[in-house]
Amino acid sequence: MGYTERMAQRQRETGRPVRVGLVGAGQMGRGFVAQARRITGMEVVAVADLDLDRATGALRAAGVEGVRTGDDLAALGAHVEDGGTVAVPDPALVSALPVDMVIDATGVPEAGAQIALRSLLAGKHVGLLNVETDVTVGWLLQQLAARSGAVYTLCRGDEPAEALKLVEFARDLAFDVVCAGKGKNNPLDPHATPTGLRAQAERKRMNPKMLASFVDGSKAMIEMAALANAADLGVACRGLHGTETTVPELHRVFRPAADGGVLDRAGVVDYATGPVAPGVFVVARSDEPTVVDEMAYLGMGEGPYYGFYRPYHLASIEAPLSVPAAVLDGRSDISPRAWRAEVAAAAKRPLRAGEVVDGIGGECVYGVVEDAAVAAEQRLVPLGLLAGARLVRDVPADGVLTHDDVELDTSTTIWQLRALQDRLLGGPGAGGAPAAPSLLDGLLRAPVPA
């Protein structure tokens, strides 16, 4: 039985739809509201955005009338219980409302950390359209969710989730996964800045920092790190290869060098440029003679390497699928099962001591994915912690920032969660089981942050 029938059945049994709260009413948030409203048994009953007009606008664009605003939590909660919809400027209110799941569509690491922590402590399922938070503290959030009985997940529709589905498909059929990845649809320019891309961003009606994060490669690095951690795969090389190729050639390119490809080993993530975007792919191998013969008969090539490809990802349009997965099945679509990859930061230009880093997609740094163990050994600073960091010494262009180069803002939620994650993992990116689970249990007993 599909989700449509099951969600309708749940609504008949409970007398109400699954209630979803959304934080962030930008492009992704608006798409989520519009699509979720069309799904039987699901309603976005609360939207938060610092720009209240944007929050109410997202709801009204989806045909929602009678939206109530304000900051009286009791009144807002009663309105939701009565079947109404609310819009608020304070994200902290959403997890306190009578919702079943909170979706974060801010794309800001610190905001995502606050929203996820607050929601999990309130016993609410959490879905992120915010991969930036996941590659910084996703392992800890997954551990908290497991202990709280709630679900922590990235949402369907983004490349990591859809690539993971292909990985699972290949593994379920006993193929060996050689490489998993995505197509990048912007020409790579690591030194691209929001200032230089402003005119292009305006033509595309995009935030210049968001566009810069696509063009400078940060987004691709972040997405492939999330995939590596969720699929327990390695990193092909620092920054990945990003080889230009076509879909029919994926299985020839992303195979070990000993067999004519670009990889130094199997079991890694990478990305492709060229006409592979907006799809995701897996290159897998089988050496079973009968399987090789059958795959040839089915038009999949001579083997033993095969490319599995999905030609699209539907971003916010697919994201609502993660709601019934969590609410009905208690299942995460994608979350870290290991800590294999880290996203570090390299300088877009010579950086001088005293400068303040403006974060992902900004003027200062671009993301570079690296093996987590290497990142820990070299003390590389996670990209998701760098917004607001102050340089304490000069860094040359393309130099990768270490903890010795910066003074981080230790007052942020994401820094504090990352410090706990590092402690539980035995050091940044060390991997393994929690060394002190009582710390997690203590956090879950803490009051919900205001």
TrEMBL record:
InterPro entries: DRL_cat (IPR048423), NAD(P)-bd_dom_sf (IPR036291), SAF (IPR013974)
CDD domains linked: SAF_DH_OX_like
Superkingdom as given in the UniProt entry: Bacteria
Domain Oxidoreductase DRL-like catalytic per the UniProt entry, residue ranges: 157-319
Limits of the SAF domain: 345-407
Record protein name field: Oxidoreductase
Species in which this protein is naturally found: Vallicoccus soli
